[in-house]
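User: Some background: our group keeps a shared notebook of sequences we're curious about, and every so often someone picks one and asks for a predicted structure to add to the entry. Today it's my turn. The entry only has the sequence so far, pasted here. Could you supply the structure so I can complete it?
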Amino acid sequence: MRRTDHDCSNISRTRRRDIVVAAGCGMFVAFMVGMSYAAVPLYDWFCRATGFGGTTQVATAAPSEILERRIKVRFDANVTAGLPWRFAPEQTTLDVKVGEVVTAYYTVVNESARETSGLATYNVTPPTTGAYFQKINCFCFTEQKLKPGEKREMAVVFYIDPEIVKDFEQADLNTITLSYTFYPLRLSPNPSAETNSRAGRS
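Assistant: Of course. Here's the predicted structure to add to the notebook entry:
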């Protein structure tokens, strides 16, 4: 059966339509993938700016006043699977005044026979207190490398913003938990060690 010019024209239009639809779907998928990558830093920025999800704030200076109201700060320490570290606070709780600058210490020990590397994240609970928990100095989000058996003391300097007393939702608040979790990082190869190893084999 012979195809007419009309049939060929319809087939050509159908193919063009299919190509346009396929290109549109491809662009949409690429856009969604790009948005998924962009969502991570945007979400992180939002949490840091608002204290959402218990993300603490970063301060550059101490507050101008110290109040008599006291809040107990509980310190929590966690290590995920794959990182052979022992990690614990030196004090499990501290009773602090609102606006008082406090230094707390954590201790970490590499219990393996090799150098390992980890990175800590943090949050506070209740999550609504994240906007008032101000950190001046912290070991979080900084790669920590420990040699076999090495023990290290790490400090966090913080205060509870006096603005918390103006938040009626926090009127009955008496305890805040600061929680750190260490995750394993892969150590980058040592070029000199690799070079020496190759030289020994030659």
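Suggested note for the entry: The first helix runs from residue 5 to 50. The domain at 57-185 is CATH 2.60.370.10 (Ctag/Cox11 (Pfam 04442)).
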